[in-house]
């Protein structure tokens, strides 16, 4: 289709008109099982009745005032985020990469107000993804996303994912923080072992560094805990960026911090016109309430276990094509063997009315709505079985 749009995306031919729970539906009525959910966004599925009702009710009352004025929904949701977590402070954003920007600025400013403006460097990891702002691509360090956009930004030191000794060696007098995704999404659906997260926490304590988690993709109940790092026990961050699932499909994100790491961000240090607007807060509060409702996260764990078990069976059946099953909770990857292409598998899956995504490292990525039932997992695995059978070398 000729279009004035940037050619930054190459979508398939399907055009979805509506969503119902775990399904996306074309105008023709053709129904697809959605196992990517807007890339880990539609945590409650499509058109969740409570989220729809909250958004409609807010739309009738007030859309936007900017942060010149108090937005009560922000206070409500921030209090919820802080209730059962490491966090004491919250800044609301419109997206994940803005939450990362806020996290980076907050970490550097912390050292600045503590008389150490020279501590500004941030240790990051290979395969990381932190969004597409200038700060985000520089923190992510993916050469493909950096090339052609001018000089690289100073202050990021990338080390191999999961290499504790390399992190240690990269710490200098100028290091301000360590930034890591507890489960890498974009980079290939790789979970950092719990012991590594605890190791990073320890290193940060020893050296006076701030630990920043990017839970934009792996947070919001995706792994079966509200926040992915909770699995690791004593590994709480000082700062955490969230987005994607927390808005359930309404664009929103947040930067959460401890009191010490965030209290210095006062009037004039940061801001956003739209961040935390009443519409976003109306939905964000519903999403939080659903994720923390009794039994919700237990269901996510049950579904994760079932899906992983099914996928391991599938990987055995197609061992010539599938190298391994990866990920945590309902953020799952199938790494394909050399010669087979993840995007081609996604196409064959679509031919079988299943929507999945692709990630780095030749991984087919799945991030279904958290409300899936066993029957949906079975349906997905059946479609993947057909898709893998159809997958030819090339
Ligand atoms: C998607 C993502 C981002 C960027 O979020 P946007 O809302 O696209 O800006 C940052 N970090 C991680 C881990 C992500 O998965």
Automatic annotation (TrEMBL):
GO terms for cellular component: cytoplasm. It catalyses: N(2)-acetyl-L-ornithine + 2-oxoglutarate = N-acetyl-L-glutamate 5-semialdehyde + L-glutamate. InterPro entries: AcOrn/SuccOrn_fam, Aminotrans_3, Aminotrans_3_PPA_site, Class-III_PLP-dep_AT, PyrdxlP-dep_Trfase, PyrdxlP-dep_Trfase_major, PyrdxlP-dep_Trfase_small. PROSITE patterns: AA_TRANSFER_CLASS_3 (PS00600). Pathway: Amino-acid biosynthesis; L-arginine biosynthesis; N(2)-acetyl-L-ornithine from L-glutamate: step 4/4. Transmembrane segments: none annotated. Its cofactor is pyridoxal 5'-phosphate. The modification N6-(pyridoxal phosphate)lysine is found at residue 244. Pfam families: Aminotran_3. It comes from the Bacteria. It is an enzyme of class 2 (transferase). Belongs to the class-III pyridoxal-phosphate-dependent aminotransferase family. ArgD subfamily. PANTHER family: AMINOTRANSFERASE CLASS III (PTHR11986), SUCCINYLORNITHINE TRANSAMINASE (PTHR11986:SF113). May also have succinyldiaminopimelate aminotransferase activity, thus carrying out the corresponding step in lysine biosynthesis. This is Acetylornithine aminotransferase.
């Amino acid at each position: 289709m000729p279009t004035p749009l940037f050619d930054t995306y190459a979508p398939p031919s399907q055009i979805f008109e509506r969503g119902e729970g775990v399904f996306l539906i074309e105008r023709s009525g053709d129904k697809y099982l959605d196992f990517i959910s807007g890339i880990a966004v539609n945590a409650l599925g499509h058109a969740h009745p409570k989220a729809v009702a909250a958004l409609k009710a807010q739309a009738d009352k007030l859309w936007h005032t900017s942060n010149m004025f108090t937005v009560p929904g922000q206070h409500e949701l921030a209090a919820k985020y802080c209730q059962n977590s490491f966090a004491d402070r919250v800044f609301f954003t419109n997206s994940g990469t803005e939450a990362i920007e806020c996290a980076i600025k907050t970490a550097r400013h912390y050292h600045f107000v503590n008389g150490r403006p020279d501590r500004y460097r941030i240790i990051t990891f290979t395969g990381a993804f932190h969004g597409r702002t200038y700060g985000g691509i520089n923190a992510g360090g993916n050469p493909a996303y950096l090339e052609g956009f001018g000089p690289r930004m100073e202050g990021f030191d990338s080390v191999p994912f999961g290499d504790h000794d390399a992190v240690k060696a990269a710490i200098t007098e100028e290091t301000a923080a360590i930034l890591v995704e507890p489960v890498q999404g974009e980079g290939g659906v790789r979970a950092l072992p719990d012991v590594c997260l605890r190791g990073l926490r320890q290193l940060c304590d020893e050296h006076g560094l701030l630990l920043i988690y990017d839970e934009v993709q792996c947070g919001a109940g995706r792994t079966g805990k509200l926040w992915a790092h909770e699995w690791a026990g004593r590994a709480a961050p000082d700062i955490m960026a969230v987005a994607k699932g927390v808005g359930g499909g309404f664009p929103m994100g947040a930067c959460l911090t401890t009191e010490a790491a965030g209290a210095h961000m006062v009037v004039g240090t940061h801001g956003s016109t739209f961040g935390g607007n009443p519409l976003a807060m109306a939905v964000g509060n519903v999403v939080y309430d659903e994720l923390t409702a009794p039994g919700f996260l237990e269901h996510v764990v049950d579904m994760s276990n079932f899906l992983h078990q099914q996928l391991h069976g599938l990987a055995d059946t197609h061992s010539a094509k599938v190298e391994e099953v990866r990920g945590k909770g309902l953020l799952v990857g199938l790494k394909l063997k050399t010669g087979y292409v993840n995007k081609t598998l996604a196409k064959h899956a679509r031919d079988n009315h299943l929507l999945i995504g692709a990630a780095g490292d030749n991984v087919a990525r799945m991030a279904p709505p958290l409300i899936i039932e066993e029957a949906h997992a079975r349906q997905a695995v059946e479609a993947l079985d057909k898709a893998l059978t159809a997958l030819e070398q090339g």
